[in-house]
Design a protein that fits this description.
two-stranded antiparallel ribbon, 2 strands, mainly alpha, about 140 residues, 5 helices
């Protein structure tokens, strides 16, 4: 159990925000597929593979106030960000569709849901991974001071 002194360590709030965003993103992803019946594509599964472990890594990092959480979370968040970026580039036609990984089942370029006409699920994923990466960089700077 962390002591009250460990809660005030530098960067704990930043790590908590990253944990909160990760939990919200994971629950939203599960909500889209389980409740709204939106089937995930191949690239969505890869993004989930990189997102879901972050919830456990951040939880462990928060519970023990472990500064080395960046070492484990940064590669996962970076890989998730790259997959989300690739999917967005596919959707907007910057990457040609003939190299898309989903040849069967749900297409990675189909837009099943959008908010305000431009916030699609892959865009929300890219935004979440970007914010997580920014928070990890801020956390890393604070703990290194």
């Amino acid at each position: 159990m962390p002591s009250t002194d460990s809660v005030s360590k530098p960067g704990w709030n930043i790590l908590f925000l990253a944990w909160l965003l990760t939990i919200a993103s994971a629950l939203t992803s599960i909500f889209f597929s389980a409740v709204m019946q939106l089937p995930p594509c191949v690239l969505c599964w890869y993004q989930r593979i990189f997102l879901f472990p972050l919830a456990f890594i951040f939880t462990t990092g928060l519970f023990f106030c472990d500064k080395s959480v960046v070492r484990y979370a940064l590669p996962l968040a970076g890989a998730g960000w790259l997959v989300a970026l690739y999917q967005n580039l596919l959707i907007y036609g910057i990457v040609p569709e003939n190299i898309k990984p989903c040849s069967q089942g749900v297409s990675c370029t189909d837009i099943h849901f959008d908010i305000l006409g431009f916030l699609t699920i892959p865009m929300l994923s890219l935004l979440a991974f970007t914010i997580i990466l920014v928070l990890l960089n801020i956390f890393n700077r604070r703990i290194s001071q």
